[in-house]
Design goal:
mainly alpha
């Protein structure tokens, strides 16, 4: 259902999945995203609280929970989850991308660049890290470097429709939160909200 943008049907299927297995973190993650997409913020928040109760110890699950917190505007909780993941595995790419976005939201461009560079060290052909770094350089008016990074991002992620949209608008440069929000997705479902 999700592949065909049948959101109501997807929500029903995911609700059934978490009733069957309340610890099914991936289903809870997608349910929160669908609730947010459907502007059902109260449902998303309730599901977020349920997801927060899951401490699976799985790095991917903890990173998804951090992403859900970030989407819900709960940066402190998101940062706690990200830091826990990076303590276990310092080069975990999804957590590094979220850390970069948290640093951007807090206006810490240098710390964001450090997280991105750590991610690029592990995954030099990452469209996500090249895109985020390009957006930082764009906001710093380093247009030539930004353009090179955007080209790399498109080269490494030709199927990522987000990358084929216009480069960041000038308003992004004036608002670090807009820049961070526009690059926060570690999964394609996030960037479609």
């Amino acid at each position: 259902y999700m592949q065909h943008n049948q959101n109501k049907e997807s929500i029903i299927e995911l609700q059934n999945a978490v009733k069957t297995d309340p610890k099914f973190a991936d289903a809870r993650y997608h349910l929160v995203l669908l609730y947010l997409k459907a502007c059902r913020d109260q449902n998303a928040f309730q599901e977020l609280q349920r997801a927060a109760g899951l401490d699976t110890g799985n790095l991917d699950d903890n990173t998804k929970l951090a992403e859900i917190y970030l989407l819900a505007g709960k940066r402190k909780e998101s940062r706690q989850q990200v830091e826990a993941v990076l303590k276990k595995q310092p080069d975990y790419a999804d957590a590094l991308a979220l850390l970069a976005n948290l640093e951007l939201l807090d206006g810490h461009f240098q710390k964001a660049l450090e997280a991105i560079d750590a991610g690029l060290k592990k995954s030099p052909q990452s469209d996500r890290f090249n895109n985020i770094k390009g957006r930082i350089f764009f906001s710093q008016k380093k247009f030539q470097q930004a353009e090179e990074l955007f080209k790399k991002a498109i080269q490494f992620g030709p199927d990522n429709s987000f990358l084929h949209k216009s480069p960041p608008f000038k308003s992004d440069a004036a608002c670090p939160e807009a820049t961070a929000r526009s690059t926060s997705g570690t999964r394609t479902t996030t960037s479609t909200i």
